[in-house]
Structure formats: structure tokens, C-alpha cells
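Recap from last week: sequence in, structure out.
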Amino acid sequence: MLKTPFERIFQNMTRPWVMSSYLVLTVLSFIYWDKPIAEAVHALDFGQGVLVLKALSWLGLSKAYLIGLPVVALILHYVFKHIKWAFRTWFLWLCVFVPDLIAVGLKYIFGRARPELLFQEQLYGFQWFKHGHVFHSFPSGHMTTIMGFVFGLCILLPRYRVLFLCLGVAVGISRILLLQHYVSDVMTAAYLALIEVWVLQRVLQRYAPTFIEEIHA
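Predicted C-alpha cells:
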């Protein structure tokens, strides 16, 4: 019997038929849908709506989490003496840090051109080991950050998991509508974050059981 809602999410999302279907959809998106969707979004020209999309997109900025969460953890620990929440905050930091670190490595390896290069130079797809911001489209860093954080919250506060997941999806949509990423970039980032947070939790359970016990106390 599964112990937590997050484990149920993970089990459902890693069933063989779900994994294969998700992979097929991601590949189909790369081959057939990414470019038409980007071109349709480019033609829409959201105007003032961009401000709302940017506000959502800011929720995926990794620096805010990687710098802010340790500060919050230290304040909770040493100022307010909320040890449990200090440990929980450190756990959320790990849920962001580990997926982000892996995403940075993948970005450098794949070197996928961002949508802006599609419109400027008709450049599309993987350029392989080609560095620079415009070649760091895959996987989406913002989506990796927000979904790592969201899945961490789903573990700590499972009652609100639907709300957290909707927030993550909204950030992903904002990155597509802002033409910063293709659909397949966002899909891949979300799935990788799920796997990485689950593995992180399992590693901590095995090698740092006291830490896990503290966040669930």
C-alpha cells in the first residue's frame, strides 16, 4: 500500500503505458507540434497580457529559491526555533537544487535552439554542445525549478497538491506563451523533475533517515 499522495502520483506517472505514452507525445510534439504552436503564439501577440505571463514566469526563477530558501531555513532554525520547518525548507531547497543541476547539464549537452532563433534565423532543434542562452531551451529551467519545488510541496503538504500542480502547469504554459520554450521542453522538464524528486527522497530515506523523519514529524 502506498504511503503518500506523492508516491501515488509517481506510481501512476511511471506505469509502463503512461511512460511510453508520455514519451511518444513528447517526441511527436518535437517533430510535429512545437513549431506550429510557437508560430501560432508568435502570431497572437499578447500585448499587455505579457505582464501577467511574466509574473507567472518569475515563479520559476531558480535564484529566488536557491538563495531565498537557505535564508528562510536559517531564520526558522535560529530565530524562530521552528526546527521542523527549517528541515522542511532545506528539503525544498534540495528539491530545487538537484533537478536544476541536472537540467543545466542537459541544456549544455543538447544545445536546443530557443523559439526566438526559429523566427530570427529559421533555426530549430538540437545543436549539441552549443552553448549560450539561446541554445538552452531543452529542458526548460523555469519548469524544472517550479516543478521540483511543487513536488517537494506535494510531499510536505499533500492536502494542497492539486493547487501546487496547477501552479506548476501555469508556469509551464507561461514559458510557452512567452516564446521562451517549446511544448516538449516543458513536458520533459516536468517529468524529469518528478523522477529526480522521487529519487532524492529515496536517497535521503536510505542515507539520511533522521532528516526524513524530521521533515515528517
